[in-house]
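User:
Note these C-alpha cells:
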Amino acid sequence: SALLSFSPLKQKDKLKKVTCKYNLDLTHPVEDGIFDSGNFVQFLNERIKVNGKTGNLGNVVHIERFKNKITVTSEKQFSKRYLKYLMKKYLKKHNLRDWLRVVASDKETYELRYFQISHDDEGSETEE
C-alpha cells in the first residue's frame, strides 16, 4: 500500500510541470500590411485568462514575438483551441475575418491563411 500512495504524488508533480508551447505564424498577412503583430500581442496580453481572470498572466503565460511569429508558452494546462478562439475574436474585431482564416499547420502551430476563392464561370444567378 506504500507504493500505491506514492505513485499518485509522482503524477501530480508531472502535471504541475506541464509546459505548453504554441506558435502562431502570421507571416503572410503581416508582410502584406493588413495585420499588426504588435497590436495582436497586446490583445493576447489583455485577453488571455489565467484562473478565470484576464490580465493575470504573471509568470504562468509568456508571449514572445519574433518578427512575424508569436510564441505562447504556458506553465499550466493551456488549450490550443483557446488560442484559436482568441485569434478569431481578434480577426472579427478588426474586420479581417472575411479574408483570413486560422489553420492548424501542425500539432503546436496555428497559421493565418487567406481564403482560397475559386472563380466559377457559372454564377448563382444562372441557376435560377
